[in-house]
C-alpha cells in the first residue's frame, strides 16, 4: 500500500465514506454487458448450484442444479447456460471490419466484443474452472453431450485466460473494479465483500460507510455474493432441500422440491444481482480514461482471433508448451507496465502516486526556446529547450530521457540541472520542419509534467526459440496435440 492509498483510507474513516482514488474510469464498460452471479457447492471446485444471468436489471434468468453431485443434472445446467451465453457471444460477430496489418495481411476485427461481469474474483475463477471441466467432452461415441457444452467450455476458458491479461475488460470482477477507483476504511480482504464495499462507496442516507458495511456482513440481511455460500445457509436450508429433492419418489414431488430449491437460491442471488447493477451505474458515471478505448480495441482483436479459431475448428491445448508459456508471461508483464503508465497519464490522481515516489514531477516553465535548432550533426534538427522549475521530490539525472505528460509523443532529455530548475531538450511531436507546429512547444508560465516512463507499450519482438527448438531444460520439443479419448474433462485444482 502506498502512502497516498493509506492517506485515502484514513480520510475515508474520517469522512465516513469511501474516497475516490481515480478521476476517470480506467476500465471499459460495455453498452450491453452480461452480468453473471454464480453459486457453487461448498468444497467442490466446479460444481454449480445456481446462476443468475442477464443483460438488463429486470431481465434475468435463474438456472439451478437441484442435485449438484448428479453429473447429468450438471451437464443439463451447462447446456442451459450455453443457450444463454453462446447467442450473446454470437451477436458480436455479426458486425466486423476489414483491416490490413503492417505486413500487408488482411484480417477481420469485430466492431465490439462481449463483456461478462462477475461480483468478485471468485466468480471469475469459477467460470474458468467450469469451462475447463467440460471443454473436452465428446459430442460423439459413448455418452455424447450436445455440441454447445464443450463450445461453452472453450469460450469460458478463453474468458478466464483473457481476464488474467492486465488491462483486459472482457471478464472483470466488480469488487476489483470498484477498489481500483475508490478507497474504503476497511481492509483489502473486506473489500472483497461487494455489499460492504458498496456500503462504503454509496452508503444509504443517514448511515456511514462503516455502519453500512457492518450490516452487509450479516448473511441474513446480505447473502454472500458467491460463488461460495454462507455455511449457515448450507447447513440449515440448502442441505435439507437437496435431501428432499433426492428423496422424492415421483415427478410431482421432485418438481415441488426443485421449485423450493429455486426459490431458496433465488433469494441468495437477488440481493447481489441488484448490487451489481447499482455498481455498474456508479462506474458508468465516471468519464472513461483516454487510453481505455485502445485497451478495449486489444480485447476486440483477441475476441475476434479466438472466434476465428473456433470457427475453423482449431484445437484448444490443455496447457501451454514452454515457449508459449514464456511468451504469454512476458506479454503480461509488458501489458502490466503499459497499463500502469497509461492510467497515470490519463489520471492526475494516479500520476500523483508517481510524483510522491520520485518517478515523475510537475513544474512550471520559466523560460522557453521554441526555435532552437541543433546543427551539430549531419542535418539540422529542431531541438527546443525549456527551463522548468519544480518543487516535487524529483532527482533528475543529466542525460536521462523523460516523457511529457500533456504531450505523450514528446520527450525531453535533461541537459542541465540548477537546484530546483532543470533544462530539457525536447524532441518529437512538433512536426517535421525546423519550425515547431503551433502549440507543440511549451510556453513561459505553462504548467506541465514529465515522467520517467511512457504510456506507449513496447512492441519489440520476443527472442524465443521456435516450437521445435525448445531446449531439453524446458521439456524438449512438445508432442503434437492428440484429441482426448474420453469426456472426463480436466483435473481441477
Task: Describe the model.
The structure is a single chain. This protein is of the alpha+beta class and 493 residues long. The chain has two domains: 314 residues, no CATH class; 92 residues, Beta Barrel (Thrombin, subunit H). 39% of the residues lie in helices and 17% in strands. It has a six-stranded antiparallel barrel with strand order 9-12-15-14-13-16. Strands 4-3-2-7 form a four-stranded mixed beta sheet, sandwiched between helices. The protein has a two-stranded antiparallel sheet with strand order 1-8. It is globular. The model has no long low-confidence stretch (mean pLDDT 90).
Number of helices: 12
Largest sheet: 6 strands, antiparallel, barrel
Q: Helicity, in percent?
A: 25-40%
Shape: globular
How many discrete domains? Answer: 2
Query: Which residue ranges are poorly predicted, with pLDDT under 50 across at least 5 consecutive positions?
Result: none
End-to-end separation: 30 Å
Q: Compute the CA-based radius of gyration.
A: 27 Å
Order of helices and strands: HEEEEHEEEHHHEHHHHHHHEEEEEEEE
Q: Output mean pLDDT.
A: 90
Assembly status: single chain
What portion of the residues fall into strands of 2 or more residues?
15-25%
Q: Which structural class fits the helix and strand makeup?
A: alpha+beta
Number of strands: 16
> Strand order across the biggest sheet?
9-12-15-14-13-16
Short overview:
The chain is built from twelve helices and 16 strands. With 493 residues, the chain is an alpha+beta fold. The radius of gyration is 27 Å and the shape is globular.
